Amino acid sequence: MNDEQMVADVDREKQRVRERVWDVLDANGATHDATAHGRIPDFAGSQEAAARLGGLPAWNRARVIKSVPDKAQLPVRALALSEGKTVFMAVPKLADPHPFYLLDPTALTIPPTEAASSRVAAGIAPKVGVDALQPVDMVVLGSVAVNRAGVRIGKGAGYSDLEFAFLTEAGLIGEHTVVVTTVHGLQVLDEEMPATTHDVGVDVIVTPEEVITCRSPHRPSGLMWDHLSPRKIASIPVLAARAPRR
Predict the structure, then answer these.
(1) Is residue 217 a contact partner of residue 202, using CB atoms and an 8 Å limit?
(2) All residues at 6 or more sequence positions from 49 whose CB lies less than 8 Å from its CB, including other chains
(3) Cβ atoms within 10 Å, residue 169
(4) What whole-number distance in Å separates Cα of residue 113 and Cα of residue 212?
């Protein structure tokens, strides 16, 4: 089996996990949307999970936070800004030569809870390139499912893994960086989950009720070009500019 076929098989397995978790969340009314399907779930209790994350020593030490723009992690971004932490998050689909919005808490003219919204941030935050960013103390990810070993499944677009990989190559993510996901308890599975070598594992899972520390989660050391289609590379300027010739 070649690498391309292996990745395709793992993707199908991941989708089966997503559908199962989305179904469970819907059946239990555990999100704020009409359905959890097709997205990073905006789970009930996201405020409580953010508050629990805010009590961790790793959070208190962190000064620079890289966060996903999803609604479920909005309370985390708002908390970070209110505590004077710098937050950056990706431009949708990384479709800009300057692929990150940079939220500087010292420059905000609106409350952190407003600035933390991805829609508002897109209108007030400058877009910056990787060279304008500081080393990242904590990465905050959204998830569809995660297990207690730190294996994480997102909604399937793969952008969080790509961002992590090229920030690692740029030297902005390293051994000191803590990777966290906030989720509903129903999104935490007690089973093995499918993963590829480009998938980012998490160090810490935070739910409204508990904090789970994961042992030795997988981290890619950089971009895996063989796992990226020419179409995907061409759609992301920062990748297209660096892509090796095939």
Answers:
(1) yes
(2) 43, 75, 76, 182, 183, 206, 207, 208
(3) 15
(4) 26
Closest to 152 measured CA to CA, from 28, 45, 9, 14: 14
**Where residue 3 falls among pLDDT bands split at 50, 70, 90?**
low
In whole angstroms, how far apart are CA 119 and each of 112, 115, 129, 147?
13, 9, 19, 30
Place of tokens 């594992």: 201
Residues 32, 42 contacting (CB under 8 angstroms) = yes
Are 21 and 145 in contact, with CB atoms under 8 Å apart?
yes
Residue 214 CA to residue 151 CA, distance in Å, equals 9
Structure tokens at 208: 């409204």
Q: What is the pLDDT of residue 246?
A: 58
Q: Is the pTM of this model over 0.85?
A: yes
Which of 30-44, 164-178, 228-242 tops mean pLDDT? Answer: 30-44
Residue 1 CA from chain centroid, whole number: 30
Burial of 152: CB neighbours in 10 Å, binned 0-12, 13-18, 19+: buried
CB-based burial, 208-225: b 16+ in 10 Å, e otherwise: beeebebeebbbbeebbe
Query: Does residue 60 register a pLDDT over 70?
Result: yes
Q: 179-207, pLDDT tens digit by residue?
A: 999 999 999 999 999 998 889 999 999 99
Tokens of 1: 């089996």
Higher-scoring residue by pLDDT: 73, 10: 73
